[in-house]
Fold these 2 entries.
Entry 1:
Amino acid sequence: MPNRRTSSSSDLKGDDTSPVFSPRAAAAFGIRHIRNGAWDLFHRPGGHPDPSSSKKINDGDASSEIVRLIPYAWRYAHEIFTAAGGWLVVFSLVSLVQAVIPAIRVYFSAEMLNLTQVVIEKQEIDKERLLYTVVAHAACSAVDNMCSHFTQRNGRKLQRRVEKVFDRHLFHARIRLDVPTFEDPAVQGRLSACYSYSGSMGWAVFEEVLSSAVEILNLVSRVSVVAKQVYDHDQQGSILTVLCFSGNIATTWLVSKSQGYELDSVTIANDKTVRSINGLSACANDKEHRQEIVTGGLQEHIRHRYEAAKERIGDAPSSAFEVLVEALYPGSWVVDTCIQIAEKLPEIYLAFYMLQSPSTFATSFATLRILQENATSLAASSCQIFARRASLFSCFKRIRDFYEIINIPNKIIDGTEAYPIPDSLDDGALGTGIEFRSVSFRYPGAKQNCLQDVSFTIKPGQLCVIVGANGEGKSTIVKLINRMYDCDEGKILFDGKDVKSFKLADLHKRISVLYQECHHLPVSVGENIGMGNPQNVDDKLGIIEAAKLGGASDFIEKLTDGFDTVLAQDLDMVVVGEGGSELYEKLVEMKLLKAPVKAGLSGGQMQRLALSRTFMRPPEEVTLCLYDEPSAALDPQAEYDLFQRLRALKGKKTMVFSSHRFGHLTKHADIILFMKEGTICEAGTHTELLAKDGHYASLYNIQAQAFQG
Ligand SMILES: Nc1ncnc2c1ncn2[C@@H]1O[C@H](COP(=O)(O)OP(=O)(O)OP(=O)(O)O)[C@@H](O)[C@H]1O
């Protein structure tokens, strides 16, 4: 038997083979988790990612909450009607018309049965009434078809129109966030909650509201027709009605209880063996591996490994689909038996009744037919409408959350003053003067300070190199200068003024940064470079020139589409179920799953691309260059060329480098800062620090020895 457990148990820590896997973290976001054999199934109960939506609220709270939600609902209604206007009204009206058609059909079915009853009892037929009933019934089908055609044809168009508005809002809400706000798991959770499992929230909410109205109208109209039939024509109707409905309501309730999991799920193999089976299958199936397999004579080896892995999996599920089917249909013989008995109750009653008074057989049979035809769907509809209360409520809460996230305040507060300071002595012509005064900083969520009481001064136009071992805080200094984060204690000054007082847009315009982790954007190579100066993103000549300066021209020319080559993400997804992709994205966003990125470029090429991006900005605009390990992935020639080029800027711009390498840069530095455990333990020029014979001298000598043989 496969081993199935729920995530509530404390022993769920995931598999060591997947460092980012955390079912407990998933539970915190309202995503449930099941471990079945080697598989992990994540699902969102009721399709609502917001854990707060599952909280039970009493009626008093609910009504005051509803009052608070009204302004948001009003704003939402206003926005969707502005976007889709009259079409939305027509679409809603057609859907409502379609909602009453089933009731009209029931009415004419009842008419047919009544006519049959008259034929049986009196052996005569009302031809006119029969003709009218048949024609009207057919007309109903035609109108129903026309309505379906209309809603299908126009639904998608309307959906796109409504979604566009909300997609724009959501995009804006995301793109405007700064680093600490964006990294905040609470903010990520709120952003994720704004996606519904069928497209963007804007349309999903409209659909939910309209579907509720349609269901209510459908139910009310059908119940009226059935009730009229039962009470106009049959004395036994009330008992049959109770039996039909109670059986069906119980059935619907039992089924809803027994179905534990919806299709909105992601199933992944969190196990080395399954991953190995998938990899080996790919070896056997994919064309690209054939050459290596044949040349290397690997057939037998791969077959052996595949069989051994299959053996290890044993009787546990071997595919995501199997896992999903087991979760969806856990099955219960008690439930199934109850359903069977409940469905037969009205017939059993009728059989007893007919035995007692056979003369009323026809009448009761007609009523039973009408009731049986409708009871199941009416019971299901009433249960659904009942269940919809919660989802409607949570829909409006999602609207509120949506409008609130649009205005999530950024943690890095924008300054008000222009930079460079107008009328200052050099107006930034020589570069930015930087001062750290007793700066301490801790990353959000970290246990201890990453920088502790750091103080130093870099004069305008100076070249500063920050050195030290891994993890000592070099990159963090770069990030604080650039205001990616704000320090917790102390002050950072630009040209003698608190950096927080300057407008962020002005600072970003004057600072050119190259980060250690070079992430390309999933756009074209040319655009990746052009983005270095968003105002001139289409400046083709500028891009070509920047690529030359960054040393990227050579490899770009060799790419299939040159500057137009698109560097897209290739997610290796194992997703099952409707809405699963969206849930997968959420799991990735929440860093519960890793999204492997297919890198089309080597590390050095990525670095050259990122470097080229920094050359897009007009040189006179930039007053400060921040380079975090700019040459880590470059070959020696490229590194030498780069440093030659950058050194030529000395005296014209302030330059701050973080580096592990000594020599090329440090010999020319005006100031070297040696970092150890988040503090600056040595500061001075190359000559001064060598004379001091401390940490710097020791590391420099280690590197120098390598070249002395
Ligand atoms: N976003 C983050 N959240 C939490 N801790 C972080 C974060 N970024 C870095 N750190 C931690 O802060 C410390 C300093 O990191 P930093 O990147 O500044 O070091 P570094 O000196 O630049 O290292 P390297 O030479 O390896 O680039 C490290 O212990 C690191 O683990």
Entry 2:
Amino acid sequence: MKAGIIGVTGYGGLELFRLLSAHPEIDELFVFSSSKAGQELSNEVPHLYQIFNTKLRSIEQLDPGRLDVLFCSAPSGVSSELLPPLTQKNLKIIDLAGDFRINDADTYRKWYRKEPPPAPLADNAVYGLTEWNREQVKKGELIANPGCYPTATLLGLLPLLKEGILNPSSLVIDAKSGISGAGASPQSATHFSKANDSFSIYKINEHQHIPEIEQTIKTIANVDTNITFTTHLVPMTRGIMATMYAELAAGVNSQSIKEIYHECYGKKRFVRIFNEKTNLFTKQVYGSNYCDLTYAVDERTNRITVVSVIDNLIKGAAGQAVQNMNVMFDLDESEGLNQLPMFP
Ligand SMILES: NC(=O)C1=CN([C@@H]2O[C@H](COP(=O)(O)OP(=O)(O)OC[C@H]3O[C@@H](n4cnc5c(N)ncnc54)[C@H](OP(=O)(O)O)[C@@H]3O)[C@@H](O)[C@H]2O)C=CC1
Ligand SMILES: CC(=O)N[C@@H](CCC(=O)OP(=O)(O)O)C(=O)O
């Protein structure tokens, strides 16, 4: 198969390059840059020096007819303009940005403060939360790969919401991310001397992933929610931990929660259910496509705490994108994704 990557010099794009260059079904990989066309990829990223002699091509040189699959890992707002002229029969596209995730144009405008993508294409996009939308992904032509925080959050909450055992108006999600979640472009908040040895909260009640999470809870679990969702920056390179709190319906106990999770994810390759109250940490999934989950039922408060950890660049971005590609091309879902987590 022939694959292309737009945005390969960014963090998500580089992880796509790493995974796809080792993928047994990919024989040719074309890489595109909007700002460094003509240069060697390894000049930009020395960790690839003398391993790959791959030239960055301009996006104008992208011939969609020569590719089977195209990954777009550019900042949100870019793919709305870039992708419509590139869509064509027999080309599958996987977009890592937020552009095609939100169904309602006004909701997109409000949270992203950008113009939404053109309607016919946006309407055909499939939300690529692989574990939950496998059948739609299989038939999809354009996949909106989920956001990193929504992946961690939704994998943790959907099984319980679908069973109707959480009070939806009580949902509180407290999420923390490593700094690579903010991308490769330097910003004040991610400057070493500000972020190191510190811990910060950001986008309180304004995070663009709020409508994505609420929309997916509605479409998959048919539950209306208004979530409280708060994000924090942690001075580590990778990883997301989402800690989620909700009131439990009467009569629900630890045993029933355990059964729901095992029933839902027992046969899913990339979601691992740990025993109740396991002390999860982000490094246990570092560099891998796993989402690890645990939970704790508090009979004193009648609340549940659900904890989810992922690597934001793998299950939260490039790994899930490759997982979606595998499903779309009828390959083994774990093809190219069998790396063990890196530890310590
Ligand atoms: N970082 C993360 O953990 C996650 C990121 N995402 C999403 O994935 C996408 C990529 O994120 P990330 O890799 O972190 O971002 P980066 O900022 O690290 O990289 C984005 C890349 O996009 C390219 N780019 C910039 N402007 C344009 C343009 N106008 N046209 C084409 N390409 C452009 C740049 O490469 P060049 O100048 O060479 O073209 C750049 O390297 C974003 O939409 C992000 O929101 C989703 C989940 C997790
Ligand atoms: C740490 C950090 O800054 N993370 C980013 C995640 C960005 C992302 O995944 O963006 P889209 O889903 O909108 O494409 C953020 O919180 O905005």
